Amino acid sequence: MSATAVIITVGGTAGPIVKAVEEAHAETTDVTVFLLYGRSFPGQKPSPFDVVAEAQRACEARGIPVRIHEVTDPEDINVCLDEARRLFREVSGAERIIVNFTGGTKPLSAAVVHAALTAELSGALVLDYTGGARRDEHGRVVPEAMRVVRSGRTATEQRLQQALQSAQRSNYREARFHCQMLPDRGRAGFVKQAIEALFLWDEFDYESSHGIVQRLQGWARALEDDPLIAPLAQLFIRLREPSQHLKRLLPALRRAQEGETLEVSAHDDLSLLVADILENSRRRLEEERLTESVLRAYRAIESAVQVQLLRLGLNPWHPQWDALPENVRVRFLELLNATREPSHLTLSTGLALLDALGQSLDAEMRKRLMDVQQARNFSYLEHGYLRCDRQRAERVQEYAGVICEAILNMSLAEQRHKVRHRWE
Fold it and tell me: Considering all CA atoms of the chain, what is the largest pairwise distance in Å, rounded to the nearest integer?
């Protein structure tokens, strides 16, 4: 397939065809012309086939290959549509498709335009009409007055913009829906795969997401100058490094859940995970999924507790109590008002152990933590029936961030920027 496919509906003269081909050929030499003509009516002069022959000779004289398609009934819109759609499937992989619908019957021109605007095309589409103000005695535009009017608004472009707008709002489910009808190639193919990666990331499937992020790096760099796609492309270039870290961390955490010791090499990535859960909570807030935002804010705090324990060499899923100093164990049991240690550590028991180790939250932080816990526990998706309003969800999101930083004893601003999906 040539880089540019020029589809032309054939009318009663070869002039507009030759004009359209000349303009396309002046822009690029890698052109293939497709002439779509209707089977001639009895006594029709000139015959469309004669016009095709003249146009074909003019193209071949310039070294341009020509393919000819006949529509058996150019007055039947359904017949015209079927043939037009077959033709667009044939050229769908071209980098650029120019459709000149000047000639032919009204059903044929209408069918070609409709098929062009609704086809799944990898490259750019240009709708092309050859017209002019000066005409001869037969109503035809005189050659010296011919001009080409172009438009490139397509269904693919509209879906592409809708997908990007949804993704910018962090609504990846909606964005995936708009992507269903996008082609897998070209700039639309990049957007389709990129949004799938962001959706998987949003579902904490870091390993699957990373495979796509890694694969799209070259494509992203090639699209950095595309005005529409550049923000998404630049985001993917930025996400490459944190994607690699998160993808590497998750298997190590799963092994720790099974009782293995967390590799020291994974410790540097632990705070990045907490930052990403906080960012996930923020995205749910942007989507107006307020309860989901609260649940993720709570999970970020729980994760921060697990991370801090792992940093101290303690496995929250399989704590080895005998390895702790006796005074720490005694203090821990006092804080729990219990006589024996739990089999694993939750958010509250994990905080109690950190307290016993000398790292406790101050009164203000505990008050904020209580607010987060109540918002989570009383919600529909946990133990109660209260709906969370936006004001409380925003407060919970803010509190979760500062509580996590207090537990980890560090700022998470840099880590949150690294994993943020916001397009800049």
Answer: 108
Strand partners, 124: 96
> Which long-range contacts link 85-92 to residues 24+ away (Cβ below 8 Å)?
85/115, 85/119, 87/7, 87/34, 87/36, 87/115, 88/7, 88/115, 88/116, 88/119, 88/121, 89/119, 91/1, 91/5, 91/7, 91/34, 92/119, 92/120, 92/121, 92/122, 92/183
β-pair partners for 66: 33
3-state secondary structure of 101: coil
Structure tokens at 418: 């690294």
Q: Residue 424: is it exposed, middle or buried by C-beta count within 10 angstroms (0-12/13-18/19+)? A: exposed
Could you tell me how many residues make up the chain?
424
Query: Do the beta carbons of residue 265 and residue 284 sit within 8 Å?
Result: no
Asked whether the whole model's pTM tops 0.85, one would answer no
329 band by pLDDT with thresholds 50, 70 and 90: very high
d(CA 255, CA 210): 20
pLDDT of residue 121: 79
Burial 248-277 (b: 16+ CB within 10 A, else e): bbbebbeebeeeeebeeebeebbbbbbbbb
Q: d(Cα 290, Cα 288) in Å, to the nearest integer?
A: 5
In contact, 141 and 130? CB cutoff 8 Å: yes
Contacts within 8 Å (CB) and 24+ apart, 140-149: 140/12, 140/13, 140/15, 141/15, 141/16, 143/15, 143/19, 146/15, 146/16, 146/19, 148/19, 148/20, 148/23, 148/100
- Nearest residue to 112 via CA among 100, 122, 124, 125: 100
How many CB atoms neighbour CB 11 within 10 A? 23
Decide: helix, strand or coil at residue 185: coil
**395: helix, strand or coil:** helix
Q: Residue 170: left if φ>0, alpha if ψ -120 to 50, beta else—which one?
A: left
Residue type, 10: V
pLDDT over 90, % of the chain: 58
Q: Tens of pLDDT along 274-318?
A: 999 999 999 999 988 999 999 999 999 999 999 999 999 999 999
Write out pLDDT tens, residues 12-47: 888 878 888 888 788 877 889 999 988 877 777 778
Contact between 43 and 88 (Cβ < 8 Å) = no
Q: What is the percentage of the chain residues whose pLDDT exceeds 70?
A: 93
